[in-house]
Design a protein that fits this description.
- The protein is an alpha/beta fold and 309 residues long.
- The chain contains ten helices and 14 strands.
- The strands form three sheets. The chain has a six-stranded parallel β-sheet with strand order 1-4-3-2-5-6, with helices on both faces.
- The longest helix is centred in the last third of the chain and has 19 residues.
- The model has no long low-confidence stretch (mean pLDDT 93).
Length: 309
């Protein structure tokens, strides 16, 4: 799959495609319904199947101080979309110039001139153009004027209501990664580069791979049973502490993961840490011996949770 970023020109073989248009952060079941409709429509017509999204998320531009909220990175979304059968993904740079375009200017400049779309698929709540002035009805109307068709996909519902990124974030903050995974159709996964740390875990016999959280939404602080996907594709069971490490001064927010039954040098490598189950909140213990015993207990609990997972 081709990933087009930074406002680069769309390759000629992808022009005339059917485009799923939206943010698609997390690519949950609701997003998959929109993207799947575009893919199936494109296949029926023999046209390229594309996704067009924005980076950064519009909320980041208009509310720069908002706490981190991302459910995925661009590289993760690119991989998922490729696995989903899409031919290309266009990441539109969401800046002041793009935000200032009227609804009609956005359609004319991006959908018609830059992408040359034959059809556009969105969710029912999609808005676009300056001040979010354009609705899906406007998109269908403008599409008719510019020679492309527009389709709207209904929201995907479960027993608790509409599946949305907002619900996924709330579940993660409430320490319910398993329920979040049901909406995402995969575990919530933090991708990051392993950095050098204080190496306290090594002295305790539990060496950890340390990663910063970047712009990911902050799940509940605590200890998790995790799966770790190595650069080789190998998946390893682990136990991870996500938070500020209350026994270490000064407090530093990190994701620290001990890969159980695995040895090797991971510094500088990129890992995917999948949050499978929440084990307990962070706590301040009475000394390093107590910490060592607690880590061993956490590992036992993690092995039990991950058994057969």
């Amino acid at each position: 799959m081709d990933l087009i970023t930074g406002g680069a020109a769309l390759p000629s073989h992808l022009r005339g495609g059917i485009v799923a248009l939206g943010n698609f952060d997390g690519f949950h079941a609701g997003h998959q319904a929109v993207v799947g409709a575009a893919r199936d429509w494109a296949r029926k017509l023999g046209r390229p199947a594309l996704v067009a999204s924005f980076d950064p998320h519009p909320a980041r531009l208009f509310q720069p101080d908002v706490p981190p909220f991302s459910l995925s990175t661009i590289s993760q979304r690119g991989e998922w979309l490729g696995q989903f059968g899409m031919d290309g993904a266009v990441v539109m740079p969401f800046n002041r110039a793009l935000a200032a375009l009227s609804a009609e200017e956005f359609v004319s400049e991006w959908l018609v001139t830059r992408l040359g779309v034959a059809g556009v698929v969105t969710g029912g709540d999609f808005t676009f153009g300056r001040g979010r002035s354009g609705s899906v009805t406007d998109l269908e109307r403008l599409g008719l004027a510019h020679g492309f068709a527009g389709r709207v996909v209904d929201a995907v519902q479960d027993s608790a209501g509409t599946i949305s990124s907002t619900r996924v974030r709330a579940l993660l903050r409430d320490a319910r990664p398993g329920m979040a995974a049901e909406l995402l159709t995969r575990p919530f996964t933090i991708r990051g580069v392993v950095e050098h740390g204080a190496k306290l875990g090594r002295t305790l016999g539990f060496p950890t791979a340390n990663m910063t959280l970047g712009d990911y939404v902050r799940p509940a602080y605590g200890v998790y049973a995790v799966h770790v996907v190595l650069p080789s594709g190998e998946r390893v069971d682990g136990v991870a502490n996500l938070g500020i490490r209350p026994m270490i001064e000064p407090p530093v927010e990190l994701l620290e993961t001990w890969l159980m039954d695995w040895q090797g040098d991971l510094y500088g490598q990129t890992l995917d840490v999948q949050l499978v189950a929440y084990l307990r909140p962070e706590m301040k213990l009475n000394g390093l011996d107590a910490l060592k015993a607690q880590i061993a207990a956490d590992a036992t609990a993690a092995r039990h949770m991950l058994k057969g997972g």
